[in-house]
Structures are given as C-alpha cells and as structure tokens.
Specification:
Layout (H helix, E strand, L loop, with lengths): L1 E5 L5 H10 L3 E5 L3 H10 L3 E2 L3 H5 L4 E4 L4 H11 L8 E4 L5 H13 L3 E4 L2 E2 L1 H7 L2 E6 L2 H11 L3 E8 L3 H29 L4 H8 L7 H11 L9 H18 L4 H15 L16
Parallel strand pairs: 1-2, 1-4, 2-3, 4-5, 5-6, 8-9
Antiparallel strand pairs: 7-8
C-alpha cells in the first residue's frame, strides 16, 4: 500500500521502519529534516518536505507526534492532500476532545480517522510488539488493522472516536500508581539493607509482579534513568487524564499526587529521565 508516516521520534522512527520492511511504499515526514534523512538512509522509502506532500495519494496516513498542538498543526497541513476513502491513524497520545474533532473533520471530507495511542515504549516499537488501543469506526479500524500488525502484538478496538485516547489515559493512570509503589519499595529495601537482586527474585513471582518491576527494578537499583519514557511526556499524559477526569467527575487522588511527584523530578532537572526516576525524589 502507499502509506504516509508523519513524525519520526523514538516511537515513530521504528514504527515507520516496520511498515517499509513489510514492503509498503512509505513516505515519511518529520519537522527535523535530518531525522527523515536518517530514516531514509536506513529504510526503503522517501522523505517529504511537508505533511501535504507526504500524504498526497496515500491510502493511509499514520502519525506519531507530541501533543495536541502538534497533531492539530500537522493534520491541518496534511488535510488538503488526503483523498476521499483514505484512513488516518493517529498514534499520538493526545486528548479525546481532539480525536473527536479530527474524526468529524475528516468524516466531512470523506476520510476515516482512528485515534490509536500505543503502549509498550521504545522497546515495543523497535521489537514490533506494541499494544494499540483504537477509537473510531469499526470499518476504519479493521482496514488499518493488517497494516498496524507490522508493529503491534495487540490491537483492540475500544469504541467510538476518542475512546482509544481514554483507554490510554487508563493505562497511564495504572502505570503512575505502580511506579510510585515500586519506587517506595526499592527505597524501603535499600534503607533496610536488603539485597535488591534477591528481593526481586523473591517477589517478582508473586502478587507484586508487574511489567515495571521486571523491567525497571534493577535499573532503579543501579540509579540508571537516562532511557525509556520521559517524565515530561508522562506529565503530558497525566494532564490529559486529569482534565478528562474533572470533566467526567471521576476522582483520581493518587494520580494527582503522583503527577505532583513528577513535577518534583522535573524541578530537579529530570524532565527527560525515565518515569522510574520517581525514586530520585525519595533520596
């Protein structure tokens, strides 16, 4: 298929690469042209100078950007070139409000729109093992499904437009609580003089086990945080969750608290550190 991929960050770069590896005709766009040049040097495909040129003639347009303003700007630029019958799949973690707005806008132009945020981090993107939660029309999700399978281990249609983003908010709410608990557990174990490797061996097979424990406990013990999902992005995601919670009347006291803990990490200069850096504020 002829595809466009807009946004080549730590997630989009490998995701677009998987599409090219499957034999699709991929045209990429990135605001930093150097990143697009790096992608074309590694993968079979072409780079466009602007979103409209990338999207022209594409059967599907994929995007993985930063926040609502980025999505709105890039989609507005690409929209005139997106033809009737095309499907737009936005993998950005953005607001449900924007997802609904874009779905309405593209539907009026005869195109489909799927909000499809992902979970699994950079490792999941590189390994083609992402979990994708989709909002939009079932027919559009099913059209995009075989293409998204190039980089996904799980694709679930949650519901109508915006529901993919709402599901991603649930994901981030759960992660925030788990990471704070893990940070406190590691801090307590250290303070008690326990061998953290043995602690992990003992508890990772029981009820306390989690993806975060298995993938972050040892790096936390080694004070390694210069990788993974950045605190700045986690705060953006939690802001979206908290805004929607206020609108729906949902109470998220722990999420609000952990969000402020992440603000502390940012104040310490840790905005680009992995989310497991919550441990740093306990020292």
């Amino acid at each position: 298929m002829k595809l466009a991929f807009l946004g080549l960050g730590v997630m989009g770069f490998p995701m677009a690469g998987h599409l090219a590896a499957r034999g699709h005709d991929v045209v990429v766009y990135n605001r930093t042209a150097q990143k697009a040049a790096q992608w074309t040097a590694r993968h079979k495909g072409r780079a466009a100078e602007d979103p409209a040129t990338a999207a022209a003639g594409a059967e599907m347009v994929f995007s993985c950007l930063g926040d609502d303003p980025d999505v709105e700007a890039v989609m507005t630029a690409a929209a005139p070139a997106i033809g009737r019958g095309a499907v737009i799949v936005d993998h950005t973690t953005a607001s449900p409000r924007l997802a609904r707005l874009l779905a309405e806008r593209f539907a009026a132009a005869g195109a489909g729109f799927v909000d499809a945020p992902v979970s699994g981090g950079q490792a999941g993107a590189e390994g083609g093992k992402l979990s994708i939660m989709c909002g939009g029309e079932a027919a559009d999700v099913e059209r995009a499904r075989p293409v998204m399978e190039a980089y996904a281990a799980r694709i679930v249609h949650i519901g109508p437009s915006g529901h993919g983003q709402l599901c991603k908010a649930v994901n981030q709410i759960c992660i925030a609580g788990v990471l704070q608990g893990l940070a406190e557990g590691v801090h307590f174990a250290r303070s008690a003089g326990l061998d953290l490797d043995r602690v992990h061996e003992a508890i990772s097979g029981g009820a306390a086990q989690s993806w975060q424990m298995n993938n972050r406990m040892r790096t936390m013990a080694e004070d390694k945080f210069d990788f993974g999902f950045a605190v700045d992005w986690m705060r953006k995601d939690l802001r979206i969750a908290l805004e929607d919670a206020r609108a729906s009347g949902a109470r998220l006291p722990l999420t609000a608290l952990v969000d402020q803990f992440y603000a502390d990490v940012q104040a310490m200069g840790g905005g680009r550190l992995d989310t497991s850096s919550l441990l740093k504020r306990l020292k």
